Amino acid sequence: MKVLMFGWEFPPHISGGLGTACDGLTRGLAKNQVKVLFVMPSASGDEDQSAVHIINASDVTAFQTRKEARELFEKVQFLKVTSNLIPYLGPDEFEEKVDLEREKEWNEFRISFGQKFKFSGKYGSNLMEEVMRYSLVASAIARQNQFDVIHAHDWLTYMAGIAAKRVSGKPLVVHVHATEFDRSGENINRQVYDLEKRGMEAADRVIAVSNLTRNIIINNYHIDPSKVFTVHNAVDFSTVENREITRGVPEKIVTFLGRITFQKGPEYFIEAAYKVLQKTKDVRFVMAGSGDLFNRAIRRVAKLGISSHFHFTGFLRGEDVKNMFAYSDVYVMPSVSEPFGISPLEAMKANVPTIISKQSGVAEVLNHAIKVDFWDVNAMADAIYGLLTFPALSAMTVRCGLEEVNALKWDNAALKVKQIYESVTEEKI
Q1: Of 273, 301, 338, 384, which residue is the least packed, with the fewest Cβ within 10 Å?
Q2: Is-contact 356 369, C-beta < 8 A?
């Protein structure tokens, strides 16, 4: 079986857990005899392709001829999102107006003959433009390759998945790693929500990374429950090793590692840190990451007067992440809404006792991480203090947690995904 897979990032160049999950899943699929063509907007050339063949969308020509472009344009009519709601027009006038708008779109569309788009692959101000151009290139890639199933990861690639489906006729699976409700709470970006909903509706199957996410998909996006399946994430332990590190401070270390955004709950971590420091000064707190709440977090730490025991490292990747886990005595993930959450698994594998919010998908598969409500900073502070103060509690959490995460393998998750591929391809026969 061969899969055409669309992603936005892939290790070693990542900004969060999405790229890590794509890497783990493709390795697991390879072990289950599934070949993956992995398309990304901007490949650097240093990606590990031992288990996957990477296609750099920046190297692909959208289309070569006017005929090819016209055929695509007629099939894929979502490339430019416009509104045809025009008041006070009769049926004939409305039809004429739509035809004029469609011809205008075609004149803009055809300038891309023979063009290669240079994608940044980042999450910048022109993100929507890159998402739409990516779908253009996706259609060309779908015409040029043979495959059985299309797999698109998160909303950034859903339009690419739809374009590939429309030109190839192959079934589409979309993989929901996070929703706009996770990222923004109730203050959702309507344009992102619409793209997410469109992708889910067009898909033959929808994969959710947790039951928490599955319920959001069904209830908030109104997707047919019969086509939504949960496949929990796993973690790749092949590169995990015991590290000998030398600390520059005598105190114990409590770590937050993730984007410093509303979704990840950094403010609750800071409030819990303040409460712990009222009981003991033999501890330092580390916030590793970057995000839109970074400056606000620094100001709050300063206002609480705990700066001497609180450190901001900025965004960490690769070896620095592994070293951070090696330094840590406790790891905390206080997410407000976490579709899954791979970092607690990595921490537990590194023998770090872990605290997670009950509002996380990973809480569905872990029994030996301490679980608290993200908003309950008293319970979070008590859990941190208990793990720092009582060695028996910490040792038991580490021992049982290690046994638990060892059973969460990407090979098993990939097998479930393969079975979803098989079910959807059988329907198409």
Answers
A1: 301
A2: yes
Cis amide linkage into residue 12, ω under 30° from 0: yes
* Residues sharing a CB contact under 8 Å with residue 297, sequence separation 6 or more, in sequence order: 260, 266, 267, 270, 287, 312
Measured CA to CA, the distance from residue 193 to residue 125 in angstroms comes to 17
> Do residues 283 and 272 touch, judged by C-beta distance below 8 A?
no
**Cβ pair 56, 42 in contact under 8 A:** yes
- Give alpha helix (H) positions in 338-409: 343-349, 377-389, 391-405
Helix, coil or strand: residue 254: strand
* Size of the chain in residues: 429
- Cα separation, 395 vs 393, whole angstroms: 6
CA dist 313 and 405 (Å) reads 27
Instruction: Kindly list the domain boundaries of the chain, sorted by start residue.
Output: 2-62+115-234+412-428, 252-405
The angle subtended at Cα 17 by Cα 301 and Cα 400, nearest 5°, is: 85
> What's the confidence (pLDDT) of residue 81?
41
Give CA–CA dist 51/58, Å, rounded: 21
* 397/419 Cα distance (integer angstroms): 34
Cα distances (Å, whole numbers) of residue 42 to 70, 157, 235, 302, 322: 26, 13, 25, 39, 26
Measured CA to CA, the distance from residue 326 to residue 320 in angstroms comes to 10
User: Is residue 312 scored above 50 in pLDDT?
Assistant: yes
Compute the distance between CA of residue 247 and CA of residue 323 in angstroms, rounded to an integer: 11
Please report the DSSP string for 147-190 in residue order: -SEEEEESGGGHHHHHHHHHHH---EEEEES--HHHHHTTS--H
Distance CA 269, CA 332 (A): 8
Residue 122 has pLDDT above 80, yes or no: no
Q: pLDDT per residue over 375-416, tens digit each? A: 999 999 999 999 999 999 999 999 998 888 888 889 999 999
pLDDT of residue 112: 53
Confidence grade of residue 17 (pLDDT, cut at 50, 70, 90): confident
Which sign, positive or negative, has the C-alpha torsion 376, 378, 381, 382?
A: negative
Class of domain 252-405: alpha beta
What is the pTM assigned to this prediction?
0.80
Q: Which fold has domain 2-62+115-234+412-428?
A: Rossmann fold (3.40.50)
Q: Nearest CA to 339 among 362, 321, 355?
A: 362
- Residues 335, 263 contacting (CB under 8 angstroms): yes
